[in-house]
Amino acid sequence: MSEETSAVPAWEQRFRAARVSLPDWAEDAPERALYVSNATGTFEVYAWDRSADSHRRATERPNGTTDAELSPDGEWIWWFDDTDGDELGVWRRQPFGGGPDEEAVPGVRAAYSTGLALGRDGTVVVGTSGEEEGTEVYLRRPGADAAEVVYRHAEYGGIGDLSYDSSLLAVEHTEHGDAMHAAIRVIRTADGATVAELDEVSDRPDPRGLACLGFAPAVGDTRLLVAHQRRGRWEPVVYDLADGTETELVLRDEQGQEFPGDLSAQWRPGADALLIEHEYEARSELFSYGLADGRLTRLDTPRGTVAGATARPDGTVEFLWSSAAEPSAVRSTSGAVVLRAPGPVPPGSVPVEDVWVDGPGGRVHALVQRPDGPGPFPTVFEVHGGPTHHDSDSFAAGPAAWLDHGFAVVRVNYRGSTGYGQAWTDALRERVGLIELEDIDAVRAWAVASGLADPARLVLSGGSWGGYLTLLGLGVQPEHWTLGLAAVPVADYLTAYADEMEALKSLDRTLFGGTPEEVPDRWHASSPLSYVERVKAPVYISAGVNDPRCPIRQIDNYVQRLGELGKVHEVYRFDAGHGSLVVEERIKQLRLEIDFVRRHLGELG
Q1: Which of 56, 137, 208, 446 could form a disulfide with 357 if both were Cys (CB 3.0 to 4.6 A apart)?
Q2: 396 vs 19, 45, 401, CA distance in Å?
Q3: DSSP 3-state of 134
Q4: Alpha-carbon torsion (523, 527, 530, 531), positive or negative
């Protein structure tokens, strides 16, 4: 390590160290790939010619780019162009080897993206979402000058997949009004006719969602891989659209037991086997499954989290792996590291320990990291977003920074989190936010009673939904928290609903069981603004001025009320959307949080 590098604090080294995403390769040109990296200080899209091992930055924008896809022949890079992180934009494309960008599908309005599918024959499918138009799916056939709308509905929907021969299109939709449990419609691209309707939501007292996992990658193959929730968790099923048959895959471990947690799958090249990902209790592992013999083979993946995997034509599987202690790397089942980010490897961090706490809705899983020395420690409760997401045993620069400063870090997979079964995920409905806070508070009580956490130095922190829960927690549980750090939060839920993107409006109606006009008491009970008078802890808020998910006006309303009440608070507004893709901006935001905590809790490590 150079003298210059050693002078930089370890937490900043982790943020500045280059990272790479899992490469996405072209279906008919597997040596051509795309990945996202922050190697230049901003997350951008890179083209990688694997045969020559040459890398080229394909996009360069002030606020970064992450959404991109290769055409199946590997000739074109498609990327989504929005304005300063507002997520409202159009698809552009450029030659793989470099060249000018062009609007990829002229005539398709600027909108929020709900997916892209590129056919091997030149078929293009673009999904859009807007407040007035709702969901629209555009289809441009090979050789056509213009795209036509083949699907439209007021409720949210998106592209599932385009079949290998481009004859069939799967659309995930929520026409039934339940945004947490999608149905799937399969459309014939030749005439727009519906071929199949897969729906396990409508007219059911126990709605169960479906998710499109992709058509079989073989000519003339009409099989569609789908995830279902029939047994209270995600599992794969294969539908053959030619004859309407389905094959459920009941997967069992080496002891003959069905797997707990969620199972996802993707086709392996050749369409005779599947790559299975098992996600359970904050960790994941990979398997290969033969469709002919039903044989399930575990692939060699270290204990931790697989953040993405892809099966290559040569039989290997490449995956992005990390643990809380070890930074991410793109690895292969061949044993090789497939892709390394340039520059030094960031410093590692502290392993997590698993803690289970009895909560009002069942056992709550928490991931705990302890700094060196004896406790009790000042403790950051880092609350994840989503809400249908989960914290995992994976590397994260933010928690590692707090550990460097002498804090314990606790992350709680509250009700609403994924990886613990459908009932756990669905439990947050109607008592939105309040359910999650009950679970967080149960873990807080354990952390204090066990001697881990100093009750006088408890920081509630989070971004997005985690930022929402932070502000809500400071008002609902004012005696329990010493400080609050809320990034891009929901703060005034009624105004947020009025201003947010349509996809989130649909989700919110599902969570609350209606609009603010239909169930006003529920919305009032779950809005941080309703409890702002009760806030005692100093609160720090950061917000993106172009954020379509947690819009700025509702944050301004909350901040104005804090000021009117004389509450101790600080606000930082940055010129981006729902977070920043610029490394120095991320460092700046965390530095401001550390400084805020230092001034209110005393000198840190």
Answers
A1: 446
A2: 12, 21, 9
A3: strand
A4: positive
Tell how strand 168-173 and strand 453-463 pair up. unpaired
Q: What mean pLDDT do residues 6-18 have?
A: 91
What token pair was written down for 528?
A: 């941080």
Tell me what percent of the residues of the chain surpass a pLDDT of 90: 91
pLDDT at 365 over 70: yes
If we measure between CA atoms, which residue out of 541, 548, 596, 544 comes closest to residue 563?
541
> What number of H helices and E strands is found in the chain?
11, 36
- Total Cβ atoms within 10 A of residue 58: 20
Q: Which residue has the tokens 């309707």?
A: 197
Neighbours of 578 (CB within 10 A): 21
- 4: confidence class by pLDDT, cuts 50, 70, 90: very low
Structure tokens at 51: 């045969």
549: pLDDT strictly greater than 70: yes
Cα separation, 366 vs 168, in Å, equals 43
Distances (CA, A) of 272 to 211, 249, 515: 21, 14, 46
Write the DSSP string, 422-478. HHHHHTTSSSTTHHHHHHHHHHHHHHHHTTSEEEEEEEEEEETHHHHHHHHHHHHST
Mean pLDDT of 600-605: 74
| Residue 561, both tokens | 């009320």
Q: Are 361 and 295 in contact (CB under 8 A)?
A: no
Residue 233 CA to residue 418 CA, distance in Å, equals: 9
Which pLDDT does position 6 carry in this prediction?
57
Nearest alpha-carbon partner for 502 in 439, 441, 548? 548
Give the C-alpha separation, 500 to 465, whole Å.
14
Which is more confident, 475 or 1? 475
Please state, in angstroms and rounded to a whole number, the distance separating the CA atoms of residues 13 and 32.
31
The dihedral built from the CA positions of residue 108, 111, 115 and 116, taken in this order, carries a sign that is: positive
Residue-wise pLDDT tens digits, 497-528: 999 999 999 999 999 999 999 999 999 999 99
Locate 407 and state its tokens: 């804090």
Say whether 276 sits in a helix, a strand or coil.
strand
Burial 316-346 (b: 16+ CB within 10 A, else e): bbbbbbbbbebbbbbbebeeeebbebeeeeb
CB-side exposure of 534: number of CA atoms within 13 Å? 16
Specify the pLDDT at position 1: 43
Average pLDDT, the chain: 95
* CA 394 – CA 105 distance, rounded (Å): 38
Q: 452 Cβ partners below 8 Å, 6+ apart?
A: 368, 370, 375, 376, 377, 379, 408, 410
